[in-house]
Amino acid sequence: MGNIVNVGLIQMSCSDNLEQNFDKTVGYFEQAVSQGAQIVCTQELFKSRYFCQVVDNSLFGLAEEINEQTATLQRLQTLAADLKIVIIASLFEKRATGLYHNTAVVIDADGSYLGKYRKNHIPDDPGYYEKYYFTPGDLGYPVFRTRYADVGVLICWDQWFPEAARLVAMQGAEIIFIPTAIGYTPSVTSNVDGSDYNEAWLTVQQGHAVANACYLAAVNRVGVEKAAIGDSVINFWGNSFITNPYGQVLKKASTETDEILVYPVDLSLVEELRDGLPFPFRDRRVDTYGDLTSLYSD
User: Fold this and answer.
1) Catalytic one among 119, 130, 174, 259?
2) Assessment of whether the complete model's pTM goes beyond 0.90
3) 41, 44, 214, 225: which is the annotated catalytic residue?
4) Catalytic: 14?
5) Domain membership of residue 153 as a residue range
6) Does the annotation mark 119 as catalytic?
7) How far apart are the C-alpha atoms of 92 and 194, rounded to whole Å?
8) For residue 61, what is the domain's CATH number?
9) 44 an active-site residue?
């Protein structure tokens, strides 16, 4: 066997009670470890319901500072050290009054805080009014060298952009983790069960894994969430999954229920394919890609 690492994803529904959601997630971390997980990732904004369905100034009160003096990070660090796992957790970051980010933190298996990634691509669609809440990230696309693997982190809307996946792969990411909150809103979709969009979501991420010869793990929330005000409803479709560098889905969670997904991945396959395939890096024609830095080629 090669370099085997057990990847864990926590797919769950959320209530309006932040502390209950946090406690529930901690319990799922412990269950994931009991199944052998070594790197465990939450869904996007795991401490709350998906509040971006509406524009409401009061919801900035859900945000918190992220540093090693804050209670949330300290609790996650203690948990990582006690369980000897790498934790990737998605939080609503208050950087300053009037400046907020959609942020994922990475904590190593000894409890040390490795850093954060701030979501770069911010959507503004019916039911997903994230531009009101989040400033685009300014930390680039970092890769975190953890005890078990070199990991890159993207967040939800980032998953549609091949440039983002390429940039973390170019820095050596063996696994790309993508905390997500995605589903369908019956009032704004022509496909009544959201299956077409779901299939596109799965396919594009499988393509990232193939194009960059790496593993990819996407973790989504699940359940029906009604906005705090108004009539907006999102049916989060779950389907958290892990795909290998061939784009083959190794394991996928259900569409309707909480689930802890744990699966072993062989990191030696990443090195084997990056050495053996010409397209991830060797045959790239970077001298022809200048237009990628333009918004559009007229």
Assistant:
1) 119
2) yes
3) 44
4) no
5) 4-273
6) yes
7) 27
8) 3.60.110.10
9) yes
